[in-house]
Amino acid sequence: FDLAHVTVLREGRVALSDVSLVVRADERVAVLGPNGSGKSTLVKLLHREIYPLDRPGSHFRVLGTSQFVASDLRRTLGAVSNDLALACAKPGIVVRDLVASGFYASVGLWPFDEVPEAYRERADEAMRRLDVTHLADRRMTELSTGEARRALVARAIVHGPRALLFDEPTVSLDVRARRETREAMRKVARSGLGVVVVTHELEDVVPEIDRVVLLRDGRVFADGPKRDVATAERLSSLYGVPVEIDEREGVLHLR
């Protein structure tokens, strides 16, 4: 996506202010910021749930065009979010059907009961890649939070997108589920897909991510290589409190 001097209003206030940001489909990027920094607005903008102000010199392009439709975006950008996880936690949905529903951008297969065999085969492959094949016939409501999140990642990759968007991927998860989700994120990144992680948790910036964008008060506060941007000095300024950073096995931890 390509944002140039983009401003977005939400409920009468400026949520993004004169933001310019370009992310290629093959990049592995984290967008990091505290609550209220504009992260959720950026995600809604990418999903075309909201629109920027129309101003001279401003543009918002996805896939090289400003005339894209949501269905085109879904074919290129898979998504995993807590909101989607909640929507998928329905008693009647089994994992196999949830993964296959990624072809239709639906939650479950109804009314798409007749799924082509090729789609079923690709769903099986996506489940294998995310190590959830053994859960194929389990209901989503029977899974642990970590298992359910891995099933969502399988759903996101089933149709062969060029990149995945992880929106606050570990919010509301326990310690084990966070670890499983981050391992799934790493697996996707190592597969060659582009990855965009939007989060307020530094630990979500998995080792494969090499670029970090910091948002503060609706503006780009910093943007560049992870080692240059995710520093104690900059993050202290970003969050407004003194912080220190520890690194263990390539993962940055904030304290």
Question: Helices, strands, pairings?
Answer:
Elements: E1 2-10, E2 13-22, E3 28-32, H1 39-46, E4 59-61, H2 70-76, E5 77-81, H3 82-88, H4 95-100, H5 117-129, H6 145-157, E6 163-167, H7 175-190, E7 194-199, E8 211-216, E9 219-225, H8 226-229, H9 232-239, E10 245-248, E11 251-254
Parallel strand pairs: 3-7, 3-8, 5-6, 6-7
Antiparallel strand pairs: 1-2, 1-4, 8-9, 10-11
Helix pairs in contact: 5-6, 6-7
Count of beta strands: 11
Low-pLDDT runs of 5+ residues are none
H/E series, N to C? Answer: EEEHEHEHHHHEHEEEHHEE
C-alpha Rg, in Å?
Answer: 18 Å
Strand content: 25-35%
Helix/strand structural class:
alpha/beta
Kindly, what is the distance between the CA atoms of the first and last residues, rounded to a whole number of angstroms?
32 Å
Helix fraction, binned, reads: 25-40%
Number of helices: 9
Average pLDDT, rounded to a whole number, is 90
What does this structure look like?
The chain has a six-stranded mixed beta sheet with strand order 5-6-7-3-8-9, sandwiched between helices. It is about 30% helix and about 25% strand. It is an alpha/beta fold and about 260 residues long. It has nine helices and eleven strands. It is globular and about 50 Å long. The model has no long low-confidence stretch (mean pLDDT about 90). The two termini are about 30 Å apart.
